[in-house]
Fold this sequence. Notes:
The complex is a heterodimer. Chain A contains 19 helices and 14 strands. By secondary structure, chain A is of the alpha/beta class. In chain A, the strands form 3 sheets. In chain A, strands 1, 2, 3, 4, 7, 12, 13 and 14 form an 8-stranded mixed sheet that branches. In chain A, strands 9-10-8-11 form a 4-stranded mixed sheet. Chain A is globular. Chain B has helices at about 35-55, 65-70, 75-105, 110-120, 125-135, 145-155, 165-190, 195-205, 210-235, 240-245, 260-270, 275-295, 320-350, 350-355, 370-375, 380-410, 415-430, 435-445, 455-475, 480-490, 495-505, 510-525, 525-535, 540-545, 555-590; strands at about 1-5, 5-10, 60, 60-65. Chain B is globular and about 75 Å long. Chain B has one domain (about 35-305, about 325-590): MetI-like (MetI-like fold), CATH 1.10.3720. A two-stranded antiparallel ribbon of chain B has the order 1-2. A two-stranded antiparallel ribbon of chain B has the order 3-4. At the A-B interface, helix 1, helix 2, helix 3, strand 2 and helix 13 of A face helix 11, helix 14, helix 15, helix 16 and helix 18 of B.
Amino acid sequence: MAELSRRGLLRAAALLPAAGAVGSTVGCGGNAGIVSLRPTVRVAVTWSAGELQAFRSVLNGLGPREYSVEMMPFGDDISTALGTRATGRPDVVLLPRPGLVADRLDALEPLPPTVAERWRYARIWDDLLFHRGPGNAGGRQPYGVPFKIAHKSAVWYRTDVFAAYGIEPPRSWSEWREINARLIRLGRTPLALAGGDGWALTDFFENVLLASARDTYDRLAAPSLPRPWTSPAVRRALRLLGRMWSPQGALAGGARRCMVLQFQDALLEVFRYGRAAMVVVPDFAELVINRFAADPSTVGVFTFPAVDGDDEDPVPGPHAPPVVVGGDVAVLAKPSNRHARDLVTRLATPTAPLPWINPDGGRGADSRSTSHGGGFIAAHLDTPMTEYSRRLRPLAERLARPAGRMLRFDLSDRVGPVGSTQGMFRVLQDFLENVGDGGTDRVSAAADDAARRLRGVEDRLIEDRDRGSGHG
Amino acid sequence: MADTHGLLLEVAPREMTGPPVPGAPRRRTNRYLLGLPAAVLLGLLLAPTLWTVWLALRTDDGVGLGNFVAVVTDPEAVRAGANSLTWVVMAICLLGLGLGIALLSRRVERLWGVLLYVMVLPFGISLLVSGAAFRMIFDPTPEHGIASAAAERLTGSSPVWLGTGSIRFVLVSAFAWTWLGYVVSLFRAGLDAIPVDVIRTARAEGLSRLSRLRHLELPILRPVTAIVVLTLIVAAARLFDLILIVTPGSSQDEVDVVALRWWHMVTSSPDPGRPAALAVLLSVFVVGVALVGMRGMRRPWAIPEYPADGEAAKHRYSGRLERSASWIVGFVVAVMWAFPLLVLAATAWHEPAQAGAGGWWRFEGLGAESFVEAANVGLWRSLFGTAVIAVLATALVLTAAVPAAYLLAWGGLPRWLGRSLVVLFVMLAVLPVQMYAGPLGDVVDTLGLGGSRIPLIFVHAAAGLPFAMLVLRPAFASAPPDLAAAVVLGRTGQRAAFGSVWRRRRYRPALVAVAVLEFVLVWNDFIVGFLISGPGSSPLTLLLWGEARQFAASAGTVAASAVVASLVPAVVLLTTWKRVIRGLTGGALR
């Protein structure tokens, strides 16, 4: 009851200044307040550029609404959209880190029953999104609806380069290493790496770790502290990764230049400038490739192979290819209004993302937007597979299958702040700088150091938390 | 008659006539009402500032310095502090460079007419835009980064400009590009104000050029120097958006500064104490610099009149050889300064795929599609929103500042009050946003105004008010002696005196300066919009920042938005710059 009346008070307070400003040209809620009195739902997204436009076409395809939608591009700082002191609070947040939902229950409102009743998503979402409310009141309810799912174990490659040397996509790590060595001998650079975007490095590492030590991956993803960062499995995965990155000529432009490349730059290295043959980036790379590839017919994609290790670090079997998954979930900021709830309900329909998946598919999209589509896999299980492009369809089908033994959520999203800029991003960037450009003999020491530093970040975090609990 | 420190002494050679002088002006209480709007606005800064101080002092066990100790011993905060200090030192070096160019510029009078505008243009452009331009120039990919392409062509390989080490060079270049024009034109205005006969006398006395500089020009320039030092050091200490847009994630730790560290602290930890302590430390430094700088603003001796444009300039300073050398320097500077603008414009006029993947210097793929794409991500809406915010904030500042400045100049306030108010204004004028952003943001949020433009307008107006007061007060106060005497003697009413001040053209430059600078600063603002209203309030700079997250791929959109965003402030600043300079130096220095 106290909660209700407090909310009512806040709403009344919100109306006061607005009432005063009605006469003037400025209303609240941004643009809509100026030209009309239509209510506005504000949606925070992490996307920019082409993805933002694609999402705009999704919103345009949602049918007639009695409110307007304003997009707020938060970029990498999307987690602040729900911050306790977040300013300019959005109504709906498309959270690229579903792991945050559990931490921010106090700032979120459960989804309307209309969504929960027609829940058709893969099982792996359940743990992330279903929670009891604050104070463990009531049953478990969904606090977010999956909108987009990302296949983070995709390797994009140049089919013409592979064909020219008679190379087949690798089925195991050792085959991949051989392919790399062969390409280097032939004077071609095998890999492009987006070291400027820390997540591109963590994705790579997570794939190796998941495929070489699934149990360790699961223990790291569990919420219990301390996590086994310095375990032999983590260090082995780092060493495998280091030996993949370290040979002279393995990375386009060298390690130092990789450090400032963003993921689009890395894609351009492969598909525009032809300076590398492969790049490990998720399915959403397709949107960029569609726009920038010099020759779209040379674009191929294979999935991350099973990791059997190399000569120094053999990985005991059985081996299976990893599938690392990410995604964006739509959550309702508290307190929500009926327009925001309506928007989330509409986004939760299987056909909602079609304009993004396939902008040319009979929805009357204008021809100009053709370059702003693709690179989207819907989380909803009923979204028709026939809409995907030839390249994405196998990836989408793999994700729609019941969660397999090797399908896991993005680790960097499960380990709190250790998985972000100051943690894994930073550590792996330094690791790359350490071992890159011929530092193969430094790999072992660098791997130990990186593992220790990850542990260090977490230790500091625990310290902070203990200090914080001393406050309350 | 003498005018020392605002006190007028006049020998009365004749009997004073006129109505008896009342002992005290009437309506003593009423006149304080003139300061009311300004006081309300300043409350918007003061209340959250005090709250931040309280947050910084509050610890687990009562009130203490625990948060400060934690900040000072935090290695990351210390590194950020050291970097910020380096920036301050760099800003002082920039000052020397600016003075040098200003001295040289007197020898290339005809070129100066162009050079002035080319150099000042970046000052009217958001730091975010200049950051974007420099990131394009130094892009690591030789296909679209001209610096990498040139280095590769010349030496076979290119340094990674945006990587560790050289990133500092890129940042400093962008900062210098933005600020140097301002420094040079203020110094130049100061030099022009030196009466020609003073220089002639000095030359006739046989003083060497160096000693003339030491004993004549530098002391006379002291007030200008103080203003420039003040602005530049404050800008360097508050640096935020430039680093955010230029630096790729992997190099960001290396160039971390205090303002950014504060932001990282706020977003990564729920404890408000430490960021508050850091904000207080930053503020103490900046305010300290400002208070020291203010003492320098007093003139060493009175200069009777501001000379008309170019009067001093007609004087010839040097021989032919020196003049041609100066021409070359001037020309090089002009080209260097125009270059980033060329990069932006050329990138904007390529279609997005070409702008993102090819070079702006190539001819294929020309077209206006990037502008279309920028419009698709909400450029026009942002443009409109920014215009509304900038115009209303400027109007609000003027409505509040003009009566308050009048009160301060002519209201007959007690001397101690006037002086402490000026000190207060100096402190508030340089106060970092971090000092009040947090609590203000919370209040805005609680009122349900997050993302709205109303709080932005008020916060901008409040933040701009102290500076407006500092410029307007002396401009109003420096009325002609006869008018001042008439008021003192009670012959003219205060309102009539103000009316007379208002009607005279001489006082307009200060008003123009305030209006133009406020408009341009608000238009180009990133940090206030970002911190108070969040990325959702859609001013132009926030749109730009959102697009720049995927830098290379959206180069076309970024450049097109940057060009459109820069047009209005650039035109406003360039068309009024001479009057702005006159308003700044003529008003604030007297």
